[in-house]
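Morning - zinc ion inputs below, output right after.
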Amino acid sequence: MIEERYFSPNKLYDKILNLNKFVNVSIIGKSVQKKPIYLLKLGSGSRNILFWSQMHGNETTTTKALFDYISWLMQKSNKDYLRSFSFYIIPQLNPDGAKLYTRNNYSDIDLNRDALELSQPESLCLVNLYKKINPEFCFNLHGQKTTYSVGMSNKSAVVSYLAPSISDDNQINEARRRSILLIISLFKKLNIDIKGHISRYKDDFNENCMGDYFTINNTPTILIEAGHFPNDYKREITKKYILKSLIYSTILLYDEDYLNNSIDDYFKIPENNEKFVDLILSGVTIIDNGKIYKDQILALNYNESLKKGKIHFNPYFVSFGKKLNYFGHRYINLNNEKTNSFNFRLGFPLKKDEITDLLSIK
Ligand SMILES: [Zn+2]
């Protein structure tokens, strides 16, 4: 079944009701709007692993993948992992943002810039749990834009990993070393499944980010970003590779042979670049302030907005010209179409009558 991109607190509640009795469910705090923040706990081992998702409310793919991961952990053949580890999972750290489909929380604060100040109840909730369970490893789960490419290649970044920095000069403490070594193995494994589509997230140091803050405190923490596979706007394909990342991580942490990797290999993983736009149209007539430009190439991206429980993708102008320096997730030639003329307003959404069936997402 294809899941909607929107993943609300109600949806989360339904999913929690369907969990079996081996998953311990508790409420570890409340959001600004007093919505419960749930913790799911599985396993009885001494090695604590902490996961959190939807710290940015509109980044839902990793939350869905976590429920598939829980089903995987429940399989009989995986009981050794539940004996060795205790898995602490916060599926939706920002329920208010999840409801409104916004990145920030209800106070319009980015929770991933609140690690030092801890000004928000949601951030406090995460850090209090972190202090209480002293995890051996953390997974900070996010979703990224469609515009990211793997380096300068024409492959979109479907999954990106990061071992967060601990300083401006790229120092490596023991925690970051472990994160780096794990990512090298994840990259090697996933790059067989989906070759060329895996990248390293940009690693600007910012100690207000939870991952950087936990790594400074010597807890290995990796960031996993769910990205875009062409035409997969519901991110069902991406979800599969996030699930694989979580499964591989579990096996790798259990077997520990990832510790034999060599740090240099991490820096060989291509970094994210922004070479993509959602749509490239050719054969377009642009009308800009009375001037007419014929046979142009037009780059568009989609804006995501929530309407009646569904996410809508509305195209807006990025750029136009005779030649563009972008790859498109989709190419459309408008030479033989009725609508091929656009009034140019850089950065603005298209007018309603300009959004033809052609441009909409199926
Ligand atoms: Zn995020």
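Note: Residues 9-273 form a domain with the Aminopeptidase fold (CATH 3.40.630.10).

O.
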